[in-house]
What we know:
Helices cover 31% and strands 26% of the residues. It is α/β, with parallel strands linked by helices. Helix 1 runs parallel beside helix 5 (163-174).
Amino acid sequence: MSKKVAVLAVNPVNGKGLFEYLETFFENGISYKTYAVADSKEIKTNSGITLIVDDVIANLKGKENEFDAVVFACGDAVPTFKNNIDKQYNQDILAVLKAFGDKGKIIAGHCAAALIFDSVGIADGKKLAIHPYGKPAVKKGIATDGQFEVDGNFYTAQTENFISILLPELLKVLK
């Protein structure tokens, strides 16, 4: 039986990345539920397309045991996070990621996702593919120039352009 995945989408989310994860999961029979890192289920892509996802991040807190993996579909994560640090949904995503990490669950993401994983202290000593602009900000993980990295339960791609080469590795543990 395949694993169940919680997919986190910031607002605005990188649509190309989000849809690549979702299509791959759908086509491979992997169960998933999408969560907006926002106050409502309505989010936008970086290009302005409105999406309605399954739920909001607040409703994932405490339910981490219902999932085998979490995927962080990045977008304008760092500037959005920086500009909205005081919002509860940003505190919720940090708590959710920390809970998944503390439980040793599969954690995946692209672009600045590795920076967020590093910031909550779940990626210490792990090799992480990250957008080149975010590389200097990684403190406890090992930021690489790789197109993707797999290190233990961490699956990261440098940008949305490399999700396609990360996904076959992720599928091996999700199927």
